[in-house]
Amino acid sequence: MKRNRSDEKTRRAPSGAAVPRPELTEALYRAFFEEWADRGFGALSLERVAARAGAGKAAIYRRFPSRLAFAEAAISTLGLRIALPEVEGTTLQEDILNLLVQTRVVLRHPMVRRILPDLHAEAARSTEMRVINDRVAQARRERAEVLLDRWVCRGELPEGLDRDLALDLLVAPLYWRMVVRGVTPTFAELETQSRAIMAGLSALGMTTTSQ
């Protein structure tokens, strides 16, 4: 039986440039963050990143033209996965508490706690890193808008809520305690914090309504 030449062509591996393998790209992202956590972005070496991932430096440059492009891809791809957890509660306080509990899981990771302060420091020094940081933060805020919409639709918060300030309030107290102060709150403390945030959100609504 003769083989179909067109079938052989479709099965044949492409010649020329290698096709990036998704699993290697993921390994490079993980190695990138490990290197960043250990040494800081300023001292980050792409050679060491490649070695951590069990690859050559060429594997990085086949995917990204520069260290900054690598950083943008890594932060955007993996950063958004942990930017805002999925929250499914039945009340405002339950939603806020679930958000805090899930965010605590992310922020208590040693690598995350070392990278985040350095990311903000780099953003203060570098316009390019500021753009990357702002882009990821904006994506997180857009996802949090879904929560605000839910609470407004359920009548738990007013439509005239100051949304920008509300988005700051949602996780800022937890971020300050865990990343800035290095303290991991207990579940009971998260419950107290959720009530305080809920009161703050309600106060924002009342302030907006009275104006």
TrEMBL record:
Keyword annotations for this protein, in alphabetical order, are: DNA-binding, Transcription, Transcription regulation
What ranges are recorded for DNA binding?
A: 45-64
Give all residue intervals belonging to the HTH tetR-type domain.
22-82
The entry lists its GO molecular-function terms as:
DNA-binding transcription factor activity; transcription cis-regulatory region binding
Q: Which Pfam families match?
A: TetR_C_11, TetR_N
Protein known as: TetR family transcriptional regulator
Origin species, per record, is Marinibacterium profundimaris
